[in-house]
Amino acid sequence: MQARRLFQRINHLTLFIALLGVSFSATVFAAESPSITTGKQLYEEHCIFCHQENGIGQVGIAPSLTNKELLSIATDKFLIDTIRDGQDGTSMAAFSMLGSSGIQAIVAYLRSFEKLPSRAAEVDRQPDAFGDPRLGQQWYEQICSTCHGMAGEGYAAGGSGTAIGKRGFLSKASDGFIRETIRIGRSNTAMYGFQGPTAGLADLDDREIDDIIVYLRSLPTYQATVE
Ligand code: HEC
Ligand code: HEC
What we know:
This protein is mostly helical.
């Protein structure tokens, strides 16, 4: 009798442990993966002050990091290198102290906002821009400088656009990334697309866009670092 009761009790205990195991693994699967959770924590500790909650950005302080066009054309390398090295001459500091696993966790967190399929590999493989920097300069000064500054110095010039004439950006962004950003823009920001039926301030053709990229790459702040 005694032995039977003990046996039953053990059986109940096993069932209980088994159920606990099932519900435990169910919660683990339902929750975010550990690196996204870590990334969110690190983001809230180090980035939210400027890039805001959910990475929506704030005009004149920091760009959006969860913008769907940005995430669909930015490679992990671009994001990781930018976070690790920062962007010289802007308030975007270097976060190398977070280590590569910390930075990768932040990127995983940002990627969890992705809404469009990634085109990053294709965009990154696009050929380098080829064009006339003098024509590019004219376009740049007419349309881009109001927001990005006359020399591409970004917020420092009082506009809403980032420092696209500085090496912090130019040394990491591929020509394909710059080209696609100009073409399609970034929704919910002042950066409208500049090509096709939805173009904002001007409808530029491929050659004109390349002229602008070649002009940006000819700026002294960038040239000083590639020569
Ligand atoms: C003190 C404010 C500040 C903090 C804190 C900050 N950033 Fe930035 N970040 C900026 C600014 C300003 C820029 C744009 C710089 C420019 O003008 O080119 C930027 C740019 C970026 C970019 C490039 C975005 C693009 O559109 O190309 C990434 C990626 C980025 N930050 C990630 C982070 C991450 C991740 C953290 C936290 C680890 C962080 N930043 C913390 C101010 C900040
Ligand atoms: C009305 C203002 C405005 C104009 C005009 C404008 N931009 Fe922008 N641009 C922005 C803003 C704002 C952002 C960053 C979006 C954000 O804050 O999330 C941006 C982002 C960019 C980026 C991405 C930079 C990065 O750090 O990833 C590139 C490249 C760019 N613009 C190029 C251009 C070029 C070239 C022109 C002219 C043909 C132009 N922009 C005209 C406001 C503007």
